[in-house]
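sanity check this record:

:::
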Amino acid sequence: MTPADMDARIVRYGDLQPCKTAFIDAHTPGSDQKENFTIIGGGVSESPDQHVHIAIPHGFNIGAAGQPPRVTNSLHDHHTAEVFFVLKGKWRFFWGRYGDAGEVTLEEGDIFNIPTGIFRGFENIGTDYGMIMAVLGGDDAGGGVMWAPQVIENAAAHGLVLGEDGKLYDTKRQQKLPDGVAPMPLMSAEDLAKRPEPTTADVLPNHVARYWDMMALADRKPVTVIGETGLLRDKPGFEVDFITRGSASAAKHSHTYPSVLMPMRGHWKVAWDGGAATLAPGDTMSVPENLAHSVVPSMTGEASLYHVVATGDAAGHTWTE
């Protein structure tokens, strides 16, 4: 792999291209200032305006959400796993039919593995623009987003209609549903009644890992955060590892699936036969399958990095008690 080949697989934080019309709540007051980023894979955007940085299939998708303070991402669900870690700011995550079943506050570096089958939303409760990074299971991320009924109703009141084809139509731009395409139906009362409403106490122990706990645990060797034997035991179709300065190794290794490197703190040097690159927080790098490479901090100071690799398992999991 030449440096030019690998450079095409690096998305720099400063080069991220946001989409402000990605989802059905793009006009809804309180949600109309959020930005969506599709970094690796097709993502789940409902808008043709969404830019995809790297379209290479990985077995999972990487995206991000950026929001000013007090801006909310509306209640939704996916058919596959959804994992977030906070890159910048302070965030409140909430879940349930009306978003009041439970909630948790995440600080920078914290990670949240959210089961399918539960409506979830999130809000930037910090004082500055915040950014959360996301991993979605599967190459097609489950084929779209399921919205809480009130989200669809509120969006229609502000001019956005979601069609059964999964595309948005903006009545403020005189757009209409095409012939033969009906509006996306609201979830039935029967289906809504089947959805669990776990409390905060139910969710926290097995679905949230704190940054400073992981920093301590990964002092000597990398920690599997999400995986069959991870801190958050799960098989969502990918594994998430956490690496620090103390657990990084200059020895080259490879994976049978493409992997992704996402620095949280510090600068990291990635080296392979034929070249090297330096990553900073917010950068995302796709490493090809079977490419031997090493990853080590390149500067002094705090250093931490999330590593994601596909496992070939099923890409979804449903809430269980």
User: Anything to note?
Assistant: The domain at 210-310 is CATH 2.60.120.10 (Jelly Rolls). The chain has a mean pLDDT of 93. Helices lie at 3-7, 149-157, 189-193, 200-207, 211-217. Residues 146 and 175 are 22 Å apart (CA to CA).
